[in-house]
Amino acid sequence: MPQRAPGKDEPYLLVENVTKRFGNFYALREVGLAASAGEFVCILGPSGCGKTTMLRVVAGLESHEAGRVVLAGRDVTGLPVSRRNVGIVFQSYALFPNLTAAENVGYGLKSRNAAKGARHDRVKELLRLVGLTGLGDVYPARLSGGQQQRVALARAMALSPRLLLLDEPLSALDAKVRIMLRGEIRALQRRLGVTTVMVTHDQEEALTMADRILVMHQGMVVQDGSPRDIYDAPATPFVASFIGSMNFISGGKRHPDGTVFLGNRSIRGASGPRIARGAGDSGEVTLAIRPEDVTLAPRQATGPELWPGKTRHLEFRGGVYRVGLSLFVGGGERGMIADVSAETVRRMELHEDMGISVELCPDRMHVYSQAPHVAEVA
Predict the structure, then answer these.
(1) Which three-class secondary structure state does DSSP give residue 140?
(2) How confident is the model at residue 331 (pLDDT cuts 50, 70, 90)?
(3) Secondary structure letter of residue 372 according to DSSP
(4) What's the CA gap between 227 and 220, in Å, rounded?
(5) pLDDT for position 353
(6) What whole-number distance in Å separates Cα of residue 377 and Cα of residue 356?
(7) Handedness of CA 209, 214, 216, 219 (dihedral sign)
(8) Rounded distance, CA 170 to CA 91, Å?
(9) What is the DSSP track for 94-127?
(10) 165, pLDDT greater than 50
(11) Percentage helix, strand, coil for the chain under 3-state DSSP, each rounded to 5
């Protein structure tokens, strides 16, 4: 099939209605993905949700029962990985231990019969790009984990792939190296302009690296949006609980006129609570609010958005304290957490079992019809 360039409004990578089964188990259920040229997309989800299977289908490493994969306007569904011109970086690095860093990077170029001089120049440039100048003659065993991952990344880019696929590339590294490398990978991706799809279970990686995030759960894409959209407007309780921390408050009511009540008080505000799609016109609902959107005030403070409560415990986190709370609602208590600055803790002289007022900002609250499959305190 001849290749054509994608149209102006066409995605560079298109995955349509892909279904993959292992026996009677559905790893993927009609999933889709569209990535623009030069876009960095993260597929995020817990273990077993199907994200790695989806990446392997895109790469051509895994067959599937239905759907198609289109790359740069070309249907590559039936093509093996060797004919898709994709670069792949695996979690395990998969370096050849008997080859030096330079030989690992140039392995694909050698198999393509590239001229020796051109191959040497390309390898030298790639090692410079990933910060490994001067380490070309070193074998993988003598490199740190971060350096080995840089070699794997350079090798994946050696053949100038149209698409770069990253399968949890940072999960085997320690925290400091992981934070440093994610910035370097993002900067390199932007510099080269290569369309990139990365699989991760680390929400912080996805939020800091991606232009767009696909959240997967039980073989399906449950939300597709920018990092800010995913965080600020989670479509389901699962997304709300998986991305960041979230307080869930059960026992809310939504009246037919759209007013949301918690206990005998309505949740009002300039824009009101955020009603999730499918929440229904009325009935019992679950409210949700991020810990950083919970504000504490002195016990004697009053106002329409203030609720009586008390502190249960304080957890020191440097410049921020995570405060466990009891919120008094309709004669009962609801457990919550709030993230407040150390300055606020000092100013209010917060301590355990202290009576306070709790402000729940209405336009930062989310309303869901179904209860989350998580504890109420995230």
Answers:
(1) helix
(2) confident
(3) P
(4) 18
(5) 95
(6) 19
(7) negative
(8) 7
(9) ---TTS-HHHHHTHHHHHTT--HHHHHHHHHHHH
(10) yes
(11) 25, 35, 40
Mean pLDDT of 52-74: 95
DSSP string computed for 327-363: EEETTEEEEEEEEEEHHHHHHHT--TT-EEEEEE-GG
pLDDT of residue 340: 96
128's enclosing H/E stretch is helix 116-129
Domains and CATH numbers, the chain: 13-232 (3.40.50.300), 245-368 (2.40.50.100)
Residue 375 pLDDT exceeds 50: no
361 vs 269: CA distance, rounded Å: 8
**Triad 66, 72, 110: Cα angle to 5°:** 100
If DSSP codes are grouped into helix, strand and coil, which group holds residue 86?
A: strand
CB 369 within 8 A of CB 283: yes
Instruction: Please state, in angstroms and rounded to a whole number, the distance separating the CA atoms of residues 64 and 53.
Output: 10
341-347 LR contacts (CB < 8 Å, sep 24+): 342/316, 342/318, 344/296, 345/314, 345/321
Amino acid making up residue 155? R
The C-alpha atoms of residue 292 and residue 335 are separated, in whole angstroms, by 15
CA distances from 337 to 62, 243, 323 (A): 43, 16, 5
Q: Cβ neighbours of residue 14 under 8 Å, at least 6 residues apart?
A: 33, 34, 69, 70, 71
Phi-psi region of 38 (alpha: psi -120 to 50; beta: other; left: phi over 0): left
* Strand bridging mode 40-44 / 332-341: unpaired
Instruction: Decide if 230 contacts 243 (C-beta within 8 A).
Output: yes
pTM of the model: 0.87
